[in-house]
TrEMBL record:
Domain ABC transporter, chain residue ranges per copy: 336-571
UniProt-recorded name of the protein: ABC transporter ATP-binding protein/permease
Lineage of the species this protein comes from: Bacteria, Bacillati, Bacillota, Clostridia, Lachnospirales
Short name of any one Pfam family annotated for the protein: ABC_tran
Gene Ontology cellular component annotations, sorted alphabetically: plasma membrane
UniProt keyword list: ATP-binding, Cell membrane, Membrane, Nucleotide-binding, Transmembrane, Transmembrane helix, Transport
Bilayer-spanning residue ranges: 50-77, 133-151, 157-181, 237-258
């Protein structure tokens, strides 16, 4: 709540004016029953058309003024709510981007998307309705009761019984339904997660012909959601009939007791109508108040979930000293040095990496090979400090990575992840992710090295080629080559290629490796692959097995002395490529 108030304070005037104008509207609404009473008692009973026209005009004027105040209040409420929602989304997006990989892995992408969309919308709607009704409804209920007692104390006695009975019914239903609505919201989160997984994995689902099973799973989840929603809906549905029964009993009591007083000459017919109108106003506002409380309970639950994300602190501080690249004349300072490094994922029972020690000099190409799950990609993620090692020390150009600002590290490291990720927009914009002010000449140079220039030229649009979301209008190999080019545009001192050529044919892969070797002589290059052919030309090869280094050396040295590397070469059944007969 404190966080929400901090956002509302950005627009204090409109936030205060919204409920104020709603109260002004309600004030004019409370005078309407009195005007109607006078029209009946004086205009109709006294057969005075002029008075009827006069009071009718006054009632229309009150209605117009009230309507104007209502529009003004709703404008201010909507503006305050939308502004609050915009600021929450902005700050939440900024905060999510400040989290390290570890927090994002723990929370989950689908959860973060739900918090950014569904939950923030719920909070925004809650703010809007709160500003419009939180003062108006209680004001009308209390005001109508006071006005009823000013008409006649004895005739207004049913109000003293009816309103407490209404409050008991309304809040009893709310106390039962509010926890159930929270369960409904949790089930909706599950449906959204299932929907996202199915849409993102639609090709895999069809490839394995799992459409029917996924449909059945989705139907089970929606059926559960349906049952919970219908159950809570039935409870909430009791609100209207029960309140109407109580109100109608109150109206009957007014007519009964008021009728006797009309016969006795102590009340007029207009006053009885005024009392009935006040009773109806109370009914309407209590129903609105009940719906507001239900909406606010959802909004508060959503706000709590949003606050949970805000309270999640990054395990990696954004502060630190900038990474300084030493002059080559300063001596042989390793570009990357691992000193007995170990790493364990959050919540994991066993270590993913342990006892890693090696150095990589500037201009050196390091190949990293190993079986699935051996820790290759995790090792690559430690170099740009996507994660912090749980043991040991990592140094970049002699500087402890924990003391460096993550942003300054990323400016000197180019990384191409396993899954090629492109963004919607032009090819030029995608390439300038590597260097914001990159010229067309620099981009074309990177495309040439990445073996991507030919297919870009073939499309005939040059750097204005439109890239669809996720690069869906490109093949897997084309996307991989473009992501490599994007990393090369920035001319990084350290280049990490994490199995980034897996979709390329052997000929293109060979040309790519040759071009990289010729053009990145000043950079430290890490080639991570399961292909022996991709790493065999590296200056040194690290052989990974079960999270530790099982061997280090050149292709020929490992082929002669390292059983793990020999097994990898043999398993690929490409003797000539592996160099067994070299």
């Amino acid at each position: 709540m404190k966080r929400l108030m901090s956002y509302l304070k950005h627009h204090p005037v409109i936030t205060l004016l919204a409920p104020l104008f709603k109260m002004l509207e309600a004030t004019f609404e409370l005078f309407i029953p009195l005007v109607v009473a006078r029209m009946i008692d004086i205009g109709i009973a006294g057969k005075n058309p002029a008075y009827l026209w006069k009071m009718g005009g006054l009632m229309i004027l009150l209605g117009i003024i009230g309507f104007t105040f209502s529009l003004t209040a709703q404008y201010f409420a909507a503006k305050s709510a939308i502004s609050t929602g915009k600021m929450i989304r902005r700050d939440l997006f900024t905060h999510i981007n400040s989290l390290s990989y570890q927090e994002i892995d723990t929370i989950g992408t689908s959860t973060l998307i739900n918090r950014m969309t569904v939950d923030v919308n719920q909070v925004q709607n809650g703010v809007n309705m709160f500003l419009r009704l939180f003062l108006r409804s209680p004001f009308v209920v209390i005001g109508a009761m006071i006005m009823a007692f000013t008409v006649d104390i004895k005739a207004a006695v049913p109000f003293a019984v009816t309103i407490p009975a209404l409050l008991v019914v309304v809040f009893a239903i709310l106390l039962i339904s509010m926890p159930l609505y929270k369960k409904v919201q949790k089930q909706l989160d599950k449906i959204l997660l299932s929907t996202r997984e199915n849409l993102l994995g639609i090709r895999v689902i069809r490839a394995f012909s799992r459409q029917e099973s996924e449909k059945a799973r989705f139907q089970d989840e929606t059926a559960d959601f349906y049952k919970k929603q219908v159950f809570v809906g039935k409870i909430s549905a009791l609100l209207n009939p029960m309140t109407y029964v109580i109100i109608n009993l109150g109206i009957i009591a007014i007519l009964y007791f008021g009728g006797h007083q009309v016969d006795a000459g102590r009340l007029t017919q207009g006053q009885i109508i005024a009392l009935i109108n006040y009773m109806s106003q109370i009914l309407t506002e209590l129903v609105k108040l009940a719906n507001l409380i239900i909406l606010l309970s959802r909004a508060m639950a959503s706000l709590s979930r949003v606050n949970t994300i805000f309270e999640q602190k990054s395990s990696i501080s954004a502060e630190g000293t900038p990474l300084e690249i030493p002059d080559p004349s300063c001596g042989n300072i390793p570009a990357v040095a691992f000193e007995n490094v170990g790493f364990t994922y959050a919540g994991a029972k066993s270590k993913t990496l342990q006892g890693l020690s090696f150095t990589a000099m500037p201009g050196e190409t390091i190949g990293i090979i190993g079986g699935t799950g051996s820790g290759k990609s995790t090792l690559a993620s430690l170099i740009p400090r996507f994660y912090d090692s749980t043991e040991g020390t990592i140094r970049l150009f002699g500087q402890d990575i924990r003391r460096l600002a993550p942003a300054s590290i990323c400016r000197h490291i180019g990384i191409v992840p396993q899954k090629a990720a492109l963004f919607s927009g032009s090819l030029r914009k995608n390439m300038q992710w590597g260097k914001r002010d990159a010229s067309d000449e620099e981009i074309y140079q990177a495309l040439t090295i990445a073996q991507a220039k030919d297919f870009v030229d073939a499309k005939g649009l040059g750097l204005d080629l439109a890239i669809q979301q996720g690069g869906s209008n490109l093949s897997g190999g084309q996307k991989q080559r473009l992501t490599i080019a994007r990393a090369l545009v920035g001319a990084p001192e350290i280049l990490i290629l994490d199995d980034s050529a897996s979709a390329l044919d052997f000929a293109t892969d060979a040309r790519l490796r040759k071009a990289l070797k010729e053009s990145t002589g000043h950079s430290t290059v890490f080639l991570i692959s399961q292909r022996v052919s991709a790493v065999k030309s590296a200056d040194r090869i690290l052989v990974m097995e079960d999270g530790h280094i099982a061997g280090c050396g050149t292709h020929r040295e490992l082929l002669e002395t390292n059983p793990v590397y020999q097994e990898i070469c043999a398993s690929q059944s490409v003797r000539k490529e592996a160099g067994i007969h070299a």
